[in-house]
Every structure is written in C-alpha cells, then in structure tokens.
From TrEMBL:
Residues of the Bacterial repeat domain: 344-421
Biased composition (Basic and acidic residues): 18-32, 44-76
InterPro entries, per the entry: Bacterial_rp_domain (IPR044060), WxL_dom (IPR027994)
Stretch list, region Disordered: 1-82
Residues in WxL domain copies: 736-883
Protein name (database record): WxL domain-containing protein
Pfam family, one: WxL
Organism name: Enterococcus villorum
C-alpha cells in the first residue's frame, strides 16, 4: 500500500482495534449485569404463572434463555412452570441460569472436606489426581419438565475420568448414606432399572440452602424411611429426620462463551457447557453481517491452568480442559473484526457535475465513515441528492453536497444526482476583514450573472438571503451560504460564496512564542473595534512563562467633548488589561467596542518592540512606541498614530537673569520636536527661576490637532541649567593674609601666614574664550600707617595647585612665586576641546593648605637688620583673570 492509500485508510474511522480491546470489558459488564439481575431473585418463590425473573419479559432476559436452539421456548417453559408445585423454586446454576435436566455440570463449594473415599467412583472430587466429576440430573418418570425445580425427583448420573465414555449411577444406602454405585452403563441407557442395584433409594430431590447453594436428599420409596441427606464425611452422617447440618453445593458450568460484538459463539451448541475432563468441547463462531471472525480469546481462566484451544484462529475448533475446578468457570470470547468494502462514486447525468470521496479514501470498514462531496461543474446545474447502492450503506444528509457516508455490508457506490435549472446565479467572491459581517445592503453584491430561462435579471428581480455568515475570527479562506430567490416565480437556489478574511486595520498583540493574544480590528464604517484571534493561539495563557502575575498589556479607549484636553485628565471609556497568567483569550472578555471618530486609543505592551504590530493594507509593521506605549486617534480612515507624547526634553542651558519674554522667544530651543512633526508648542505654563546659577525647572505645554478639529495637549517638564555667559572670578576665598605679630630680630626671618583654610580662587568660565590665564602681582611694598615701608620684605605663594576644573588642559607654571610689582602667571588654561567646542563650568585653584592654624602656602621673608617700627604693615595683592579675547579683573 502506498503512502496515500495508507492515509486514506486512516480516514475511514475503522474501529476494529478498538473492538478487540473492548471485548473483554463487554463480557465483564454483561457478566456483572447478569449477577445483579439474578442475585435478588434466587430465593423468590415461583407463583402459579411463571418464575419472577421472567415477569418483565425483557428482550435481554429472553435472549438469555432463547439464544440457542437447545433451549426450550418461553411458552413451553411457562407451561412447565405452571404445572409445578406452587411452593417450588427454579434451581439456578452458579451463573444464574435455569438448571436443566440432562445437561452436564460440575458440583462444588462444599463446607469442608469433599472426599468420601479413595475410589474415584465414590468421590465427587478426586484430590490425588486433580480432576472433577461431571454430573447430570435425569428427571423421574412422569416429569416432562426440562427445567429443574426443588422438590422434584431425579436420578444422578456421573462421568468419571477413569471411564470418560461411561455413565455411572448415584444411589442411596439404607443405612443413611449416598454413594456412587459400582455398576456402569452406556451413556443414555436406562440406568435406574439396572440389575444388581440397591432398590431402596434410587431417586433424589434438591432443597434450597442459601442463594444458589442446595442440599440433596434421597427420596424414600419405603414408608419406613424418610430419606437421607447427602453428607461429606463418614463420621457426620445425619439421622433419618435430617436434624443435623448437611453438605451444600452449587452447580457450575465449566466453560462460558462471553458476548461479543460482531457475532455469536457457542460451546457444544450452547452459551455454557461442561464437557468431560480432557474431552474436547466444540467451539463454533458465527460472524454477523459486516464482520469476520478473528480469533478465540480466553478472557478469564479463573486460575485454571492447562486449558488448550486447538486452533485459536479457526472459527470451528475445540477446547480441552486439562485441569480441574469445582467452583469456577473458564470464560472464552470470540473476537470479530469489521470487514472492509470498496466505495466508488458516480454522477447522473454525466455532465452535471463531479462526485468524489475526500482524502483519497477507496475502502471503508463496515460501520466506518468517510466524507463525500458533489460539485456542480458549470452554471445551469445543481446538486439534488445522493443515491446509495450496497446493503446497509447510507449517507447522513442525502440533500447535502458535502456529507458523511457510512459503509454497510457489501461494496457500495454513491451516485450524485444533478438537475438542470432554469434559474442561474454565480457567486461573487468577497473580502471581509476580521470580525466583519455582510449587511443587508451588501447581499446582492454576493451574486452575479443572475438569469432566468436565459434572461438576465436586474437586482430588483431577485432577493438574496444570508443563511450563514462566514467565520471571521481568523484570517483565511471561508464561505458564506446564501439563497437567491426569483421574485416572479419563487424559484430559488443555494450558493456558497467564497470569502477571503483579511486583517484589515488591526493592532496585533502577541504573547508567549509570538502567538496571537488579540487583534483589535477597527471598522470605521460600523463604528466598532472587534477583538479577534486573527490566527488561533493554542496556548493556555498570555505569557505566563516570562511575566506570570505581572502586567503584560493594556488597551484603553478615551473620549472628550472639549475643544482641547490633556490626556492625563481623562478617564477611560473602556479598558482591558492582562497579566502574563491571564487566559490567552482574555482579549474577548469585553466583547466588541463601540467607537466614535476622534476617540483616542492608548496601547501598552511590555514587549512592544517585538510583539506589538499594526496591519495596514495587509502588511505588518512594528508600532512606534515610547516607553512601550503609543496613542492612536480613531479616524474615518483607520488608526492614526499620534505624536503629542513623542516630544523630547534635552539638556538646556539658559543665561542667568533671562526674562520671561526672552524665554518665550527661545522656547523652540528648549524642546526636541524631531519625532513630533504634527505637534505645536502652546507655551510655558511655568517659567524657570533664572536669578540663580544652577538647575531650575519649567513646564512647557504642547498640543496636537485631531481630525475632528479638537486638540489633545500634554505638559512637559524641562530641567534648565542657569549659568553665566562670562569668564570671571566667582569667588576669591581666604585671600586676606595675616602673618600675626613678628618680633624684631637682627637675623632674617620667614613667617607663615595664619588661618584655618587655604586660599582658593574659583573661576567661572561660561564664555567663548579658547584660553585664559590667572595672574598675580604686588604693586607696592608693605607699609605702616605712617607710610613707612618695610624694606626688603617679600611675600611668597607656595604649592599652587588645581583643586578641580571642567577643563582638561590647565598648566601651573611655577609651584612657588615671590610676589612683586610685575604680574606673574599662576595658572593657564586651554579650554577648547580636540575636535572643537569647549566645556563650560568651574575651575578652582588652591594655594597650599592649612595645618595647625598656619597656612603652608603663604609666608613672608624679612631680611636681617631690617628696620621696622612697632606698628602694622599692610599691602595689596592683585589677582587678574585674562581671557582671549576678554580680560576681566576680580
């Protein structure tokens, strides 16, 4: 079989394997059902009409007694029961079936030791060789009943393995026991008149003990004896009145054929039988129409070993029971399988259309199904019905061009019947978008070339009715079913219109594995947003793996009637929010969304970069987002991306002391509008503070005009850096030097200045100067109040260093400087960066440091023999900041 044929066979829904697996379950269920049915009836008294378990006359119970030819008919049974003693009971075997005269059984379930003697003839069960004896009850003369009742007289026959073809009789001794007589006769011979037997007690009766367990008693033929009970040990014989406990037992069928689907099985011509040990039981299986025999299967051996089926695959075979059991039944089931039959197609008339079995199926099992299809090949014909040939075969809907065929019991042919029509119309292929439906005004656009008897009809001549809208939850090829009716005559025809479902203008949300978790499709004409799958997602959750209980996406709708508004001031008209562990179809929870032109939609997706897209003209594009969020206006044309949230706020520097008028003039320089082309600046709602150098915040409002003429607004907070535009000394700290009290001395002296903080110069450079230099000088010497100069005294600056600077290239020419009237450079800065531009900011120079109240970077040297008055001496030190091209003094 080629690959396509194998696939075709798989499409026929063959149930053979399933039937095989279910045979044992069916058998067990029926067995359990029988037990339940009969369990409550075993001890009920038989009335004068019929036994209680036949009163309902159900088909199931009829089958139980009438399934085999050897079982008498129910009417005969009723007559026999009617002649029975009113207080008699029907005797049941362990399966709950009526005990029958002349049928072989095994007897078991005694209370204790079942052995009467070592002789196989005297034993109900011979232990040492593990075999059972088969027993049958033969009715006494004058008893024409086939069914055994308690209280009836009968004799007992037994077959022993020692002489399997010989029947022995069981008799009663005058002393009170029951034994098996040593004499034998051929099977069927009149045993109870055999010579040499004891004539005192030759017939027996049964009495109910409990359930389906009975006691046996010898029937007395003498007025001096009351009869004897069967006993199970030499020391426990009962008296003639039967006052002590006697042995109880039940009747067992050794083999039972279980019910089977597809046929009937029999053992020795019945559903239950007890063959002689090691003698063949004839198994016969007959298949029902549509089935064929497969095998015999022992479904329950009840721990009985050694049973053998001669040919398991032969419907007519033998079963040998090699072990023994007095209390259990071997259950055998015939297994049947469904036959396969060929299916073929035909069309009538030949030019009316085509018929086919889908998926290439060529054969189907009995009761199996396949799909068949009929198509009218050209205008002017239409499919009418299916006809089927082949016993037992059928189609689900004879009037449907696409339906299910069920195979019968022989090869089948299905014929598609077509008819020529005078009313003709052709389906016009259509396109819808997700969530869309055809309206009444669109229906006549679904057909074309509508004619009646060759005459072209106008739209006013016919009506089109929609039978079923196409499924628009997913994109793809679908159909819409319609009926076209000619108004003048009422003639009508059914058509299937091909419909292509497209995305339309849809915002697509995706989740785990980029699977769809909702396509929000906008229908401007209908004023709706329809959430649909687009592509079906078989995931259970939105994205539980990566986000779990955390937020994943939202979809919000805003509406405002004011001419201008700030989006943050609005409450959503409708909103939908999902976490990672939300159901995948959570997007459907709000149904369809009613919309107005001018509504604003906010979309947010935590993985917007890869899993939030928009469909335009059936092309998928990434949604431009800011912080995983975007806004759209609903217009007459579709979703329109808004930009009012795309304004950037760069770092902005403004001059110290700028006025509000100056700020308004420069406002366009304070926002980056490159990603917000359609956005306009409204103005400041809060001005920055410009009186102090440093950071200051201001707020600027922007707006975007909607297609409705309204404006949506947004306020942006801008951080301004207020700075100077000059090169200047910002601070000169601790520059008043105090050398304390100096004692006169003929020797030279060097004295450090006193102070708790080192002198520092802070340079503020927000200018365009490419370089600057700090210079220092002492124009005059130290003089007292009388203008007397301390001749020869000099001040030195030591350990000059750059404490901090925004400039990378600063030079300190000398670490130590002796002040004089001539200007000297203490620091030089090149402020222009490599590649152009410069850094603007603060530079701080420090002179030495402070240790124990003395300044290490400032001292005064007084030569020896310097004439000094007892007074204070002072001088002025000049610091100069020279820039290119600006020179400014501090």
């Amino acid at each position: 079989m080629d690959e396509s044929s194998e696939k075709a066979m798989g499409e026929t829904m063959d149930v053979n394997e399933e039937e095989k697996r279910s045979q044992e379950e069916v058998s067990k269920k029926e067995e359990k059902s029988e037990e339940m049915e009969n369990g409550s009836q075993n001890n009920e008294k038989i009335d004068e009409q019929r036994p209680p378990d036949l009163e309902e006359n159900s088909s199931e119970k009829k089958d139980k007694f009438m399934s085999n030819e050897n079982v008498m008919k129910e009417d005969d049974l009723s007559q026999l029961i009617g002649r029975s003693e009113p207080r008699s009971q029907v005797v049941l075997d362990d399966d709950g079936q009526y005990l029958r005269y002349g049928k072989w059984y095994y007897i078991g379930n005694f209370e204790s030791n079942r052995i009467l003697g070592s002789d196989g003839r005297d034993s109900w069960l011979r232990r040492n060789v593990n075999y059972s004896l088969a027993f049958r009850l033969q009715a006494a003369p004058g008893n024409t009943s086939d069914i055994v009742f308690t209280g009836q007289s009968f004799r007992i026959d037994v077959i022993t393995p020692r002489s399997p073809n010989t029947v022995s009789g069981v008799v009663a001794e005058p002393s009170g026991g029951i034994r098996m007589d040593g004499g034998t006769v051929n099977d069927g011979q009149d045993i109870y008149l055999a010579p040499g037997w004891i004539t005192g007690y030759r017939y027996f009766t049964l009495k109910t003990d409990t359930g389906k367990r009975y006691r046996i008693q010898a029937a007395a033929l003498s007025s001096t004896n009351n009869g004897h009970w069967f006993y199970h040990g030499s020391s426990n014989r009962v008296d003639s009145a039967g006052n002590t406990t006697s042995s109880t037992f039940g009747f067992f069928n050794m083999i039972q054929i279980q019910s089977s689907i597809g046929g009937v099985g029999l053992v020795n011509g019945e559903s239950r039988a007890t063959p002689a040990l090691r003698q063949p039981a004839q198994l016969r299986a007959t298949a029902s129409p549509g089935y064929e025999f497969d095998e015999w299967r022992v479904v329950d051996s009840n721990n009985i070993s050694g049973g053998t089926i001669t040919s398991r695959l032969n419907p007519n075979t033998e079963y040998y029971l090699n072990d023994r059991s007095n209390e259990h039944t071997v259950k055998i089931t015939p297994i049947f399988t469904r036959k396969h039959y060929k299916i073929s197609t035909n069309v009538s008339p030949a030019n009316g259309g085509s018929a086919s079995v889908l998926h290439g199926v060529t054969s189907v099992a009995y009761g199996g199904t396949c799909r068949i299809q009929a198509i009218a090949n050209r205008p002017g014909y239409r499919f009418v019905r299916w006809t089927v040939s082949g016993a037992g075969s059928s189609v689900a809907d004879v009037n449907s061009g696409n339906t299910i065929f069920t195979m019968g019991t022989e090869n089948a042919t299905v014929t598609a019947q077509f008819e020529e029509i005078s009313f003709i119309a052709e389906a016009e292929p259509q396109t819808l978008i997700l969530g869309g439906q055809f309206t009444e005004t669109q229906l006549k656009k679904l057909v074309k070339n509508v004619t009646y008897n060759g005459q072209v009809l106008t739209e006013n001549d016919y009506e089109v009715t929609i039978v079923s809208q196409p499924d628009t939850d997913e994109v793809g090829e679908k159909t819409a079913d319609i009926i076209v009716e000619y108004k003048a005559t009422g003639a009508n025809l059914s058509l299937s219109v091909p419909v292509t479902v497209n995305w339309g203008n849809a915002l697509r949300y995706k989740g785990w594995g980029s699977a769809s978790v909702g396509a929000f499709v906008y229908h401007p004409d209908a004023g709706l947003i329809t959430p649909r799958w687009g592509i079906l997602n078989n995931n259970t959750f939105v994205n539980n793996t990566e986000f779990g209980m955390n937020f994943y996406y939202s979809f919000k709708q805003f509406r405002r009637t004011d001419d201008s508004f700030d989006i943050k001031d609005l409450m959503p008209v409708k909103e939908l929010s999902a976490n990672g562990n939300s159901p995948a179809d959570h997007f459907t929870s709000e149904g369809d969304w009613a919309t107005n032109v001018g509504d604003i939609i906010e979309v947010k997706h935590m993985q917007a970069r890869n899993r939030l897209t928009i469909m335009n003209n059936e092309e998928e594009q990434a949604v431009s987002v800011k912080d995983n969020q975007a806004y759209f206006e609903l217009t007459k044309e579709g979703y329109h991306l808004l930009q009012f949230d795309r304004v950037e706020t760069p770092k902005v520097s403004i001059s110290k002391g700028m006025t509000t008028e100056e700020l308004d003039k420069e406002i366009t320089n304070y926002l980056d509008m490159s990603q917000a082309k359609n956005v306009e600046i409204v103005g400041f709602t809060k001005y920055p503070e410009t009186s102090k150098i440093g950071e200051s915040k201001g707020t600027i409002r922007v707006c975007e005009k909607l297609t409705t003429g309204k404006y949506v607004q947004k306020d942006y907070e801008v951080v301004f850096t207020v700075e100077s535009t000059t090169l200047e000394f910002q601070e000169i700290d601790h520059a008043d030097f105090d050398f304390g009290r100096v004692k006169k001395n003929s020797q030279s002296q060097t004295v450090s200045a006193v102070g708790d903080a080192a002198p520092a110069l802070t340079i503020s450079d927000f200018s365009d100067s490419k370089s600057w230099e700090v210079r220092v000088s002492q124009p005059e010497g130290l003089k007292d109040e009388q203008n007397n100069e301390l001749l020869g005294a000099s001040i030195r600056l030591k350990n000059i260093q750059v404490a901090q600077s925004v400039h990378d290239n600063i030079l300190v020419p000398a670490r130590t400087i002796t002040l004089s009237a001539v200007q000297q450079s203490i620091a030089q800065a090149q402020t222009e960066n490599i590649g152009g531009g410069k850094n603007k900011g603060i530079t701080q120079l420090q002179i030495g440091d402070s240790r124990d109240g003395k300044l290490s970077g400032i001292d005064i040297h007084i030569p020896r023999n310097t004439v000094a008055n007892a007074s204070k001496y002072r001088t002025t030190i000049e610091w100069e900041l020279v820039g290119d091209p600006t020179l400014m003094n501090g």
